[in-house]
UniProtKB/TrEMBL annotation:
Function comment: Catalyzes the aldol cleavage of 4-hydroxy-4-methyl-2-oxoglutarate (HMG) into 2 molecules of pyruvate. Also contains a secondary oxaloacetate (OAA) decarboxylase activity due to the common pyruvate enolate transition state formed following C-C bond cleavage in the retro-aldol and decarboxylation reactions.
Pfam families per the UniProt record, alphabetical: RraA-like
Organism: Klenkia terrae
EC number: 4.1.1.112, 4.1.3.17
Protein family (similarity comment): Belongs to the class II aldolase/RraA-like family.
Gene3D superfamilies per the UniProt record, alphabetical: Ribonuclease E inhibitor RraA/RraA-like
Subunit structure, as described in the record: Homotrimer.
EC class name: lyase
Name of this chain's protein: Putative 4-hydroxy-4-methyl-2-oxoglutarate aldolase
Length: 230
C-alpha cells in the first residue's frame, strides 16, 4: 500500500537570497539560471502585479480533494510559498479565501497550484497572490490522503520542498535549494549588465549595433531593399 507522509522540514534558502530573488523576478532569475527552472506557462496569476520569492512547502493531493492542504498548513511558516500538485489532472477549485486567511496568519507569501482555485474576488481584495491552472468554483472533498513536503511536479517542473519558488506576472520558476546562491549572484550580474544596456537604448542605440547583429544578418543572407526595388 502506498505510504502517505507529512514531512516536517525547515531547510530552505537564506531569507536574504529570497528577498534578492523577489527583487530580480522570474525572467532575470530564469536567464541567470541558464534558462532553466520555469513552470509551464499554463499557470497564470489570478490578478496582476504580485512578485514573490519564498521557500517551497509542497502538497501532493488526490484530485478533487483538499484534505492534504489542511494537513499542510501547520507545516508552513513566514516566507513560505505553498505549492500544490494533484496525482492526476484536476481543475477543481480546491483552494479559496478561507485557506488564504489561514496561510496569511502564518506569514505565507502565496500559492502556486497545478489545480484550480476559487474566491478570486476575495483573494484579490486581501492581496493574497495565487498562480493557478484554472479558476473554477467546483467544490472539493476532504476524504482522501496524500502527502506533504514530498517532491512534486507542477506544470512539468519538478519542485522539491525547500527550493526557492519565484513568481510574478511572467509566471513561476523554481530554483533548486543548492543553486540559490549562484543564481542570486548571476542575477545581480545580469541586472547590472541590463542597466547599462537600458541606458544606451534609451539614448537611441539599437540592439542591432550593440549586439553586433549586422554581420549575422548579412551572413544569413538578409538583403535590404528600397521600396521601389522590393
Ligand atoms: O474551503 C474550500 O474548500 C476552499 C475554499 O473555498 C476556501 O478556502 O475558501
Ligand atoms: Mg471559499
Amino acid at each position: 500500500m502506498t505510504q502517505h507522509v507529512v514531512v516536517r522540514t525547515t531547510k530552505g534558502p537564506a531569507p536574504a537570497d529570497l528577498a534578492a530573488l523577489a527583487g530580480f523576478g522570474v525572467a532575470t532569475a530564469h536567464e541567470a539560471a541558464g534558462r532553466t527552472g520555469l513552470v509551464g506557462p499554463e499557470l497564470r496569476p489570478i490578478y496582476p502585479g504580485s512578485r514573490i520569492a519564498g521557500r517551497a512547502v509542497t502538497v501532493l493531493s488526490h484530485p478533487g480533494d483538499n484534505l492534504m492542504i489542511h494537513a499542510c498548513i501547520e507545516q508552513c511558516r513566514a516566507g513560505d510559498v505553498l505549492v500544490v500538485a494533484t496525482t492526476s489532472r484536476s481543475t477543481d477549485g480546491m483552494f479559496g479565501e478561507l485557506f488564504a486567511t489561514q496561510l496569511r496568519a502564518r506569514g505565507v507569501l502565496g500559492l502556486v497550484t497545478d489545480a484550480g482555485v476559487r474566491d478570486v474576488a476575495e483573494l484579490t481584495a486581501m492581496d493574497f497572490p495565487v498562480w493557478s491552472r484554472a479558476v473554477h468554483a467546483q467544490g472539493t472533498a476532504k476524504a482522501v490522503p496524500g502527502s506533504v513536503n514530498v517532491p512534486v511536479v507542477v506544470a512539468g517542473r519538478l519542485i522539491t520542498p525547500g527550493d526557492a519558488v519565484v513568481a510574478d506576472d511572467d509566471g513561476v520558476m523554481c530554483v533548486p535549494l543548492a543553486d540559490v546562491p549562484a543564481v542570486v549572484a548571476a542575477s545581480a550580474a545580469r541586472e547590472a549588465t541590463e542597466a547599462g544596456k537600458r541606458a544606451q537604448f534609451a539614448a537611441g542605440t539599437l540592439g542591432l549595433d550593440l549586439y553586433d547583429l549586422r554581420p549575422t544578418l548579412e551572413r544569413l543572407g538578409v538583403v535590404y531593399l528600397d521600396e521601389d526595388d522590393a
